[in-house]
Amino acid sequence: MSVFHVHEWLTLELIDANVCAVGELIEKRDQLVVGSVTGRIWIIDPGRANDTKKQLLSCLLEKDLPAAILDIAIANFISGLEQNLIAVLLPQKLTIYRLISDGEIYQLSTVYEHTITTIAYNMCIGTFGRASAVQICVQDMACSLMVFEGENQLFHRPINLTTALHPGPIIYTPHSDSVIIASSSAILISYRYSVLATASSGKSGKKVA
User: Fold this and answer.
1) What does the radius of gyration of the chain's CA atoms come to, in whole angstroms?
2) Disulfide-capable partner of 36 in 16, 81, 131, 186 (CB 3.0 to 4.6 Å)?
3) Cα–Cα separations (whole angstroms), residue 149 to 35, 116, 204
4) How many angstroms separate the CA atoms of 19 and 39, rounded?
């Protein structure tokens, strides 16, 4: 018999939830940010649920956004700002939010908003090019990559994935400063950020092989 037991700490019903991120937003402990395909976003603080009577207090915010939530990330997206922010990816919009409170009432305040002219698929975050602030790389349905830093879109790069039918998972590895994509044809492809950034000096660049 195991000496370890599982104790149910918190139970919440989150209908149609499909993405989740964990990060420190308030009170020096981690919170959960959950998004759904219907556009609903929840911010949950499990640290408040110290007994079953206070479980409802653990949901700090529940809000409807105008479209399906594709991805969520929590990080310090602005250099010099100590507070972590929330990046929310919708099919044609990337929004950076700050969680603010007035007593026990929490709200999302928009810090930056980017319009995506194509249809987004997913995103990853990282200090691309050894930047001081965390940046965001969005992959669209055509496997193109868009990199955002704060209020600026740094570039938009078409990627040559001729054998892929649709985009796949994406992640950033700081060791090699590279963006790694898993294509639908079961191939892992790594792109150094320096190659992506210098492929062209314009907002839209040439295709990266």
Assistant:
1) 19
2) 16
3) 22, 14, 16
4) 11
Q: Which pTM was predicted?
A: 0.89
For 64, other C-beta atoms within 10 Å of its C-beta total 9
- What the block records as the tokens of 77 is 């997206």
SS3 content of the chain, % helix, strand, coil (to 5): 10, 50, 40
The strand order across the sheet containing 188-192 reads: 170-173, 178-182, 188-192
Return the structure tokens found at 86.
């929330």
pLDDT in tens, 26-70: 988 999 999 999 999 999 998 886 666 666 678 999 999 999 999
CA distance 38 to 63: 11
Q: What's the CA gap between 84 and 31, in Å, rounded? A: 11
DSSP β-bridge partners for residue 146: 138, 156
Q: CA 8, 13, 14, 18 torsion: positive or negative?
A: positive
